[in-house]
Amino acid sequence: MADTHVTNTKEDANIGFIILISLVATLGGFLFGFDSGVINGTLKGLETTFASQTATSSFAFSSMLLGSAVGAAFAGTMSDKFGRRNMMIVAAVFFAISAYGSGAVSSAFPFIAYRIIGGLAVGAASVMAPAYISEIAPARMRGALTSIQQVAIVVGLTAAFFSNYYLAEKTGGALGEINGIQTWRWMFWVELLPAILFFVLLFFIPKSPRYLMVKEDETGALKALTRLFGTDAAASKIIDIRASLANDHKPKLSDLLSNGKLKPIVWVGIGLAAFQQLVGINVIFYFGSVVWEAAGYTESDALKQNVIMGVLSLVAVGITLALIDKVGRKPFLVIGSIGMAITLAIVAYAFSTGEVIDLASRQIDLDPKMGTLALYSAMAYVFFFNMTWGPVMWVLLGEMFPNQIRGAGLAVAGFAQWIANFIVSMTFLPLLETIGLAGAFGIYAGFAFISIFFVAKAVKETRGMELEDMVG
Q: I want to staple 75 with a disulfide (CB 3.0 to 4.6 A). Which of 99, 124, 145, 398 is the partner?
């Protein structure tokens, strides 16, 4: 249903408030990014402290992703029962527990446990923030507002990279000390500050009006919509939401099925979520220091490259914010798939020209020119990802499902996203020691190429559509 019955003046009067609460919601994205990126600089400290081998290290570093898969799987359906905001409050508590515990442990098993707790928070935040923002934002700017989630993720990653780099520079590396405590532990504890801030601010934002309507609290929904859009627009939107829910029942997972099979829209969501990870983006974000040290850079230089890539990512997402509601979602994905396929193939080629020195130490002898080519191509790849698949996948997942299955659809897609993330992260170090950097990046380039055809065939444009008009 078009948005023509709502005047721009009415909505503009509340845009500042909508942006403000969207920023609060995306603090979960910031913590998602920080928690994902902080592991990058702690790698050497953790391996030394825990005396880990490759397989153990891979699981310790990837264990958060299993928690994320579980958190995403349950957050959607739990939020249908308890509310989007309440689930984000629980996630904030888990972020704080994980941040403190990860830096306080002295062996691998409790570290894995705390990382899984953090993963539960990351998974919940990854699906709740887009769902919440899509349900409080006007259709004409929903894409830009939901894209703020990716901005927050990238800012969180960049903050983690910068924090790691700063602490390592001041103390001589992850194994240095601050007040007698190893630096890598402080890298985790920095996250406590934004986690506590997120927890406090969530109590000042309204509940999702569409969630309140599902819970048959029309008075509460009208009050929330009035704060967002004004009295006249709120009354009109209440009618639209009520009509969309009139023939529906309370959400449940079985709503995702049609004749005993997953609905096509759910498969599209799963495909989008999986491809976003199978292109290997988190190899750069989680193991960037390993990649660049293997290519011959020092620990300090490798951490510095991470900071640069974080800044590039912010520029890329800024382009998306400015254009996504004008250009649309699907064109961004096609451009991204093509750009990533090309740049990943160049990275793979550059690394293929090197010679392995020592598998155990993950060192290769690479011509400086090829190392530079690999670095710049990787930067271009990160730019393409964060301009396209990074934010646009979350925008689509937050708005493509009908009201009745939004929570459950996000849960299943989020679960697929984190399982794919876990597979890529868990296999990277073993791949590095078997087929090398060239082979690993060649695999990611192949998935980027396949994603071009997936987007062209399966993804439908949702720009400018009201959530009540989404069909599945």
A: 124
